[in-house]
Input
Amino acid sequence: MKRVLLTGAAGNLGKVVRVKLAGWADVMRLSDLNEITDAKAGEEVQCCDLGDKEAVMKLVEGCDGIIHLGGVSTENTFDSILNGNIVGTYNLYEAARKHGVKRILFASSNHTIGFHERDVTLDADSVMRPDCLYGVSKCYGEMLASLYYDKFGIETARVRIGSCFEKPLDRRMLATWLSADDFVSLTKRIFDCDRLGCPVIYAVSANNELWWDNTKVRYLGWEPKDSSAAFADEPYLQGRAADANDPAVRYQGGSFASAGHFED
Ligand code: NAI
Ligand code: 15L
Output
């Protein structure tokens, strides 16, 4: 890759990707709403609000691929989700179309399907059941990617990320956890493979308990290597048996499913 745009570069995942993908592209163009002041060799910075159409048009110019992590990443006000995730994702795809970008990694989320119960195994064709307005915005992003693939041939990996943190933060994340290394190996496959298409991919490590089946994207040749099993006995994950009727326990989205609207 010659020049890859990384949106959300100042965020949790963006910071990790910067380090772990250093040198992978000739140039990594970093962008975020927040300032970035520590660009290294092989990095260039172009910060803007994804909701700013003209700025995003300039941002995408000259890039061969896009890793789109930027935007609102948890439940929030409708206005901020509208700007960052709805308008912002549209601006990005329009800019990609105008500038001839052919491949995008769209950071979708497990909250597109968070209202499925935990005893159901989902795959790429399972019906969307978003558990919050943030989840709805990621459903929109996935559908926008589908449109730009069918109409304009722009390939997108619609990556439904589970929980990408250093460790699982609670018991639910024993099933949803994704290691940073597994995310990075997936990112490389997405840009290295000959034919991507527009698949839905569940980005989750090889945990003992899994709710998501990636059989339909085996052609990508991605195999996660890590597992949350390494953390299962940690004291902070032990506790009283959970109430199976609690919506935060019953549904895959956990507390995103049980919470009310952010503004209530
Ligand atoms: P994060 O919140 O740490 O990073 C997102 C970045 O986007 C922030 O640095 C923020 O400043 C930037 N941003 C927000 N609104 C913006 C706007 N209007 N214009 C430009 N930049 C804006 O989130 P994180 O954890 O790094 O996640 C990255 C992506 O992956 C997000 O799209 C998130 O929805 C998705 N994801 C992450 C998961 C995880 O476990 N980390 C799980 C599922 C999805
Ligand atoms: C997400 O979509 C969020 O971006 C992340 O912060 C986590 O909350 C994750 O889902 C999760 O479900 O654990």
